[in-house]
Specification:
By secondary structure, the protein is α/β, with parallel strands linked by helices. Helix content is about 35%, strand content about 20%.
Amino acid sequence: MTPLRPMPGAATAGLVVALSAGCGRDAPVVSVGGASSLYPLSEAIAEDFAGERPDARIAVVASGSAGGFRRLCAGEVDITGASRPISTAESERCRIAGIRYLGVPIARDGIAIVANRANTAVQCLTLDELRRLWEPSGAVATWRDLRPAYPSEEIRLFGPGPGSGTFDAFTRVVMGRPGASRADYYQTEADNLIAHGVAGNRWALGYFGSAAFAAHRDRLRTIEVDTGFGCVRPTDEAVSAGAYSPLSRDLYIYVAYSTLERADVFDFAHHYIVAAERLSALTGYVPLPSAEYVRSRALLAGARGAAP
């Protein structure tokens, strides 16, 4: 397979929304970073919050789960989104830096395997075939290498890089351990670039969060995945019911205890939890059960009271 080089600046998705109005221009900015998988929801919630609080100043930047955790532990971001739980090493980095944090689940999605709409030859792949496609050796170069009935066309692969929580989740499930992956593919934390790449090549294949697919369904289609119980697409129903497991996952937000002392950060974090229940389905995600949001609001209130 011919290695594909990311476009300049594509390693970190430069997705930013800054909302400000009126006298709020002198107010501090609430900074939200982390997973590109959560960017559409974070952006929608920031806009929703600004509709209620026109003086709000919210900046949303997507830099991948790992980058978000680094910034949280360095005190550079107030809230970070993540498409996986914080790792032991990341938690230790925060502890050493004196950063206590709260993490709560906020929505659910699936990792969508996406293909060009013109590729009608490939309808369903097994987990074993996904493993063979993405294993570090890079032995599979054409579709026929994967399955004799497929055409002898070169496969162009697109996906998130090692700084992405989606990369960690995908490699953990498909390869058996986080980080195990071939490197000769187009790597980027920007979901729109993955979509653009797959849409531009008939025989391409990629993966990202299913919410990202919702924004590009006119150019792409999802490949069904067979985990041993039949071929399943990452529909809302399949993700919610667990039928798309193990390629479905919870998404999270993390906030530092110390920043919760700021009323604007606490108010936005509280609004995020409240609005996520309402806006998740509208932005391509699967909302959690209502009891989860009630629990998260209680945890947030408790964390604010426990802030040093």
